[in-house]
Fold this sequence. Notes:
- The protein is mainly α and 277 residues long.
- The protein has one domain.
- The protein has 13 helices and 2 strands, in the order αααααβααααβαααα.
- The protein has helices at residues 2-17, 22-52, 54-57, 69-86, 88-94, 113-139, 142-148, 150-153, 168-184, 189-206, 229-238, 249-253, 261-270; strands at 105-106, 187-188.
- The protein has a two-stranded parallel ribbon.
- Helix 1 (2-17) packs antiparallel against helix 2 (22-52), helix 2 (22-52) runs antiparallel to helix 4 and helix 6 runs antiparallel to helix 9 (168-184).
- Bound molecules: zinc ion (2 copies).
Amino acid sequence: MIGWVFRVVRYLNYDIFVGMNPWIDRYMQVLERVGSRYFIIAGIAFFVFYVLLRSRMAPKKIQRAFPALRDYRREILYSVGTILIFGFIPLLFIFNPTVRPYTTLYDTIAERGWWYYVGIFPVMFLMHDTYFYWTHRLMHHPRLFRYFHLVHHQSTNPSPWAAYAFHPLEAIVEVGIFVVFLFTIPIHTTHIVLFFLLSIIYNVYGHLGWELYPKGFNTSRIGRWINTSVSHNQHHKYFKGNYGLYFLFWDRWMNTLRVEYDEAFEKATTADAATGS
Ligand SMILES: [Zn+2]
Ligand SMILES: [Zn+2]
C-alpha cells in the first residue's frame, strides 16, 4: 500500500517538477523502494503476529504486554523520517554521475563471476554487524545517547514497526554502512537490493516481540553466535548489553552479552498457555 502512497505522491508532484528537476523524481523512486520494503515486511509481521495470531501467540510473547497505539504511531513516524534520510544515499552516490565512478560498484555479474557474487554476501553481513556493534556502543555513550539513540530506546517493548525508528541523527549513522560498502568492496547493484532486503527482514525479526528460532538454538554450535529476537528484545528492555545485529561474535568477545540471555531464550521458547510462564 505504501508503494501506492509514494506513487501517488510522485504523480501529484510530477507536473510541478517534470523537466525541472529529475532528481526529485529519482528521489521519489528510491523512497518508494525503501518505503515499501519497510511497510510491507513490518506490515506483514505486524498483521500476522499482532492481529491474526494475537491471542493464540500471546502466551509466547517475549514481553507479555503489548505496546500501546501511540508506541506504534511513534515507531512508524520516526521510521518514515529514517526512510526519507536513507533515500538520499543512492541519489548522492549511485545516481550521481560525478561520484559514481569513484565507488566500488561494478556493472555486470560476469565481471567478477558467481563465486565472488555469492561469496561477498557473508562478508557484507560481517561488515555490517561490526559497524553496527561499534557505532551502537558509541551511541550508548552518555554524552551521545540522548541525541542519537534515545528515540530508538523509547520502544522498551518493541514492535516490528521499531525496525527503522531512529532519530534523524541515528538514521545518518545507520545508513553509513551503505557508504562504507560503496567505497570498500566491489559490489553489484543487486547486492545492495538483496542485502538491504535481507537486512530489513532480520531487523523486523529482531523487533518482532516473539522468538522464531527453536528451543535450544541459543546453546547450539551455530546458534550461540547468531543474534536473536530475545537478545535484541532484552537490549530494548534493559538498555545495557546485547549490542549486536545479526551475530553475537562481538557481544561474546567483548563480554557484553547479558548473563540472563540463555534463561530468557529458554523461557521465550518454552512458554505456553498451560503453564502461563
Ligand atoms: Zn532495536
Ligand atoms: Zn541501543
